[in-house]
Design a protein that fits this description.
Distance between the termini: 79 Å
Number of helices: 2
Order of helices and strands: HEEEHE
Radius of gyration: 27 Å
Strand order of the largest sheet: 1-2
Shape: rod-shaped
Helix content: 40-55%
Number of strands: 4
Structural class: alpha+beta
């Protein structure tokens, strides 16, 4: 085999190795993404289960001058009387979860007897 053929074989081997490495990397990234989605789903499921004990109304809807308005309300389900209310406005984008999952920092307020709207 001459030098040119040897060089060509080396280039082919390098290209093949690079392609294999890229496939492995893509497969690993897909696996990691799948795990992240699964973990987010588990976390959301856990939050939903926790919220069920404190949720008095999700997507409470009413009409204001012809415009449909909805609001989520969290309070202790066994609370009696009218609680003090904290109005919480979500100021960012949803990275995971939904508006049905109560942020954990609000849970302590609900446990203290407040309602979160």
């Amino acid at each position: 085999m001459d030098a040119e053929a040897i060089a060509k074989k080396k280039e082919e081997a390098i290209a093949k190795k690079k392609e294999e490495d890229e496939k492995k990397k893509a497969a690993k990234e897909a696996e990691n993404a799948k795990k992240a989605v699964e973990l987010a789903a588990v976390a959301e499921s856990k939050q939903r289960a926790e919220a069920e004990s404190t949720t008095s109304g999700l997507d409470v809807q009413w009409d204001v001058e012809g415009v449909g308005v909805s609001l989520d309300i969290w309070r202790q389900t066994n609370a009696g009387g009218a609680p003090k209310v904290v109005v919480w406005l979500h100021g960012g984008g949803w990275k995971f979860g939904t508006h049905h999952t109560m942020p954990s920092f609000l849970r302590s307020l609900v446990e203290a007897g407040y309602a979160i709207a």
